Sequence to fold (772 residues):
Amino acid sequence: MKKSPRQWRGLFFVSIPFAVVLLPLKMILNAKHLEQWVSSIFQHKGFSETDANTAANVLITADLRGIDSHGVARLSGYLRLIDKGRINPKPNIKIIRETPSTGTIDADAAVGLVSAEYAMKLAIEKANNCGSGWIAIKNSNHFGIAAKHSMMALEHNMIGFSVTNASPLVTPALGAERMLGTNPICVAIPAGQEPAFVLDMATSAASNGKLEIAERTNKSIPEGLLIQKDGTTSTNPAELKNGGMVLTLGSDMDHGSYKGYGLSAVVDILSGVLSGANFGPWVPPFVSFLDPLPNLPGLGIGHFVGAWRIDGFREIDEFKSTMDLWIQRFRQTQPLNAEHPVKIPGDYEREETERRKINGIPLVEKVVEDLVNISKECNIPLPNSL
Amino acid sequence: MKKSPRQWRGLFFVSIPFAVVLLPLKMILNAKHLEQWVSSIFQHKGFSETDANTAANVLITADLRGIDSHGVARLSGYLRLIDKGRINPKPNIKIIRETPSTGTIDADAAVGLVSAEYAMKLAIEKANNCGSGWIAIKNSNHFGIAAKHSMMALEHNMIGFSVTNASPLVTPALGAERMLGTNPICVAIPAGQEPAFVLDMATSAASNGKLEIAERTNKSIPEGLLIQKDGTTSTNPAELKNGGMVLTLGSDMDHGSYKGYGLSAVVDILSGVLSGANFGPWVPPFVSFLDPLPNLPGLGIGHFVGAWRIDGFREIDEFKSTMDLWIQRFRQTQPLNAEHPVKIPGDYEREETERRKINGIPLVEKVVEDLVNISKECNIPLPNSL
Fold:
């Protein structure tokens, strides 16, 4: 329901003095303080202290890594799903099937931030016992930042793998219908002296987060990222709210959009079909104001995580020094433009983490407003801005 | 060394009558007959009957699936590498490291067509024993079509996975240097009534095969697939022979080329670094006239294959009927253009296989010429054209 200009003007006059008096428009918060606050909010909503800490840590990890779309910006969304009964704050997560190196868990409607950590721990335990471990998760909710889950493997000298399906927003190649989520793939690989290699990517041409930021800042986007409801291309990120669709990685058939579609499909099948969760167009929406479709074929959202033990293949020291050589050689790649050297996946996020650990996490107006409202509702004061 | 027009004219007059008398310009061969012939050629070059049959079957599978770049068109290349001593026709493939669900093999310079089958069998055995199996392969050579290897898992009710690194031809995002191969990813997933889902894709914006075909037919290619040696874009596939580079899936930073780079890098690390093979710019060239670089960090080319047992996660029947639903629902995706319905990965190749099993495998002039030369050298007559 669109508001007319007159109504907006009214809101403007009402909200400006309120904002000036009560709301800092932007804030920069210390990561640890923010994490503790987020944990206390989850505890207020019924999470155990352990689960609340886990969930808070996943969100703050996203904010530290500069993936603002997956950080505290999502907190109000999670809370609304808790209030609606779609996220279970006290889940009884169960292993429902198992072999020495595989298994499936029913997350009992836990938030993915919590169920993915549970699953990844189990995968690591299995990898310790028999070389690799793979866990499918059904009956879960939003995953949070995939990198956090895959990176759990690193300190165990393992390669971590995590994928999840997500609410439909992306059209398969040749299609004009929302059938897939932005379905990320994340692989974290330890190195020796060099920092770990961490690839965390949406299988769509653009992540939802990037499109949201373009919309928020009124910027147009390049062609080849989304199409309108009628299938025509668009450079306006707001079209996503009018029924538009994101394209898969590759953008068009000439540039391999069937590959992005294929990868997204594999993520959907591992996460949804293998686990017994929902998949494709049936994945429940993240937003609380949209109900899941009727007659769902599965339970909740699905994820799939795993770990390979390095020394199940090669001596750890040998692997790590070779991985260092890999990273050093790729950094030396002849650049297209001398000012932009070739990066290793994870570089940007690691550098941003180092910066934000020192300088704090910057929050935009909309997010600050959300957090202030949450703070009031739960009566737990927000930390002060730095 | 380019020939002058005069020299070419000379060749033209000499070769035309020869071709008319001795060479059919194009041929269509029965798949089974061609496969037997290829096997007899490999045996002539010293392969055991079993290995020769395996290698021939991988090549003919590619031809049947319409992936002509990976079929008998490659035979002469393999034979030259055997003659040069770079492919070992009598390899002693060994497991050099093992856990219940992982392992590494030294392929003893076998061709990948053979070592990948060996590794995949081992992965399937491990998956039978403990739910999943993962094998890294070092000291190998060209892999052939990845789909053949992954699809071995299907009849065991497993999901098959295979990747390989390859000779450097692709530049990382932001780079202008050949650092990666077209590094394919293949995932094969069984269904029930529906045919299996088989994704087999290069992680580059275009496969080498596609660019070769464009070059052979003098067609220009879309922008965003390759750049010239100096980093400028090109629509001329022949630039690849002048030091040009293929771009990664995504094509440019705006459209996610760092994602294609990241995926290609993961393939390279699993195949090369984890196994102890070469990686990145050190992967030995496929062509016999180029020698490997000095001071290689590993042994040969590397691959990585694996299998997940479906019933390590979910009842097989349940999985298969759900997979059927996935496939049926995706086929019904609203198409962008009613004449081009959305496909399931593997559809094109399966339909082509059905056609070519009946109609035979069409071979272009250049390939026929190769096969005729091989036939003469080995004194093993080619099957007749259909």
Chain B touches chain A through 88 residues (CB under 8 Å). Residues 1-21 of chain B have pLDDT under 50 and may be disordered. Chain B has two domains: 12-86+360-378, 100-205+247-317.
